[in-house]
Amino acid sequence: MRTHEESIRRLIYTYAELLDAADYEGMGELFQYATVHVSGVSAPVTGREDIRDFFDGMNHLDDNGSPGTRFMTSNTIVDVSEDGQSAKARSYFQCLQASSGVPLAPIAAGRYHDQFAKRDGEWTFTERRITLDLFGDMGHHVRFNPGTDTVDPAEVVASARAAKASAQASGGVR
């Protein structure tokens, strides 16, 4: 049986796996009860479908459907409430990328500040704050530069949904 801290770390690490696999459906499920704040994004994103489509619309993929990234999370500190029903965590992350002929390089580093709650006996995210502190060349990973640009999440979600509808209409898969 996992401790509270182990269960929470597992959620934190699952995010990295899902993002590296471009499993945006899984990300929507992971954050279905959460509010997600991202550096350079003008408003938080909430709800399973909006979170799924936000990440889908934000990230570039190679021809093989991969973002070519590896997110590594470290220095995770978890604080569980005395009643064991809520928790906070903070972590560092670093992202490496090698895709589309681009050599392996660190492209970003930052921090996660997370909040969790027990729901039906299981830990769930209730909030994630992604702060990007250090930037490399993120042009092959995301569709905007979080160091200099500000993005409207509603526009990103709408763009992702339009691209998906267009692909389905033409018989393709996005």
Task: Offer a concise description of the structure.
The protein has 174 residues and is of the alpha+beta class.
- Spatial separation of the terminal alpha carbons: 39 Å
Q: Taking all residues together, what is the mean pLDDT?
A: 91
Low-pLDDT stretches are none
User: Helix tally?
Assistant: 4
How would you describe the oligomerization state of the chains in this entry? single chain
The H/E string reads HHEEHEEEEH
Specify Rg, calculated over alpha carbons.
Answer: 16 Å
Under the CATH scheme, which architecture would be assigned?
Answer: Roll
| Strand order in space, largest sheet | 2-1-6-5-4-3
Beta-strand portion reads: 25-35%
Helix content: 25-40%
Q: What structural class should be given to the helix and strand makeup?
A: alpha+beta
| Number of separate domains | 1
CATH class: Alpha Beta
The main β sheet shows up as:
6 strands, mixed
From the 3D structure, determine the CATH topology. Answer: Nuclear Transport Factor 2, Chain: A
What is the total tally of β strands? 6
Question: How would the global form be characterised?
Answer: globular
List the helices and strands and how they pair.
Elements lengths: L3 H17 L3 H7 L4 E4 L6 E2 L1 H11 L10 E12 L5 E12 L7 E15 L2 E14 L17 H17 L5
Parallel strand pairs: 1-6
Antiparallel strand pairs: 1-2, 3-4, 4-5, 5-6
Helix pairs in contact: 1-2, 2-3, 3-4
